[in-house]
Design a protein that fits this description.
With about 100 residues, this protein is mainly β. The protein has one domain. The chain contains no helices and eight strands. The strands form two sheets. Strands 1-8-3-6 form a four-stranded antiparallel β-sheet, with no helix packed on it. A four-stranded antiparallel β-sheet has the order 2-7-4-5, with no helix packed on it.
Length: about 100
């Protein structure tokens, strides 16, 4: 039986761990320019400042008003499982290298 999605954001169900990845993200990057799910962000290189994840379709549009998470400047994997209605943009902190799992 197909799952019925209910909520304010219209997104398609993705795989639990994400079915796509963006690796070696070192600058503000559009991970997905359409609705999707930001599953997790792995900090590969910690850097000196925190990064952000935003529900927006362009890097120029990334702002506090569409930010849904912070990426600490500590090597680890951070789970979000956040449904994004517009798109997924990741803005690494200074010196950070990130890997993003999404659907």
């Amino acid at each position: 039986m197909a799952a019925t999605l209910v909520g304010p954001v219209n997104v398609s169900p993705g795989l639990p761990g994400g079915n796509r990845a963006a690796l070696n993200v070192t600058a503000a990057t559009v991970i997905k320019a359409t609705a999707g799910i930001c599953v997790s962000v792995a900090v590969v290189v910690a850097g000196s400042t925190v990064g952000t994840v935003n529900d927006v379709a362009t890097t120029g549009g990334a702002a506090a008003t569409n930010q849904f998470g912070t990426v600490p400047n500590s090597v680890n994997t951070y789970t979000f499982n956040w449904p994004c209605g517009t798109g997924i943009v990741v803005v690494p902190g200074t010196g950070q290298t990130l890997a993003v799992s999404f659907a």
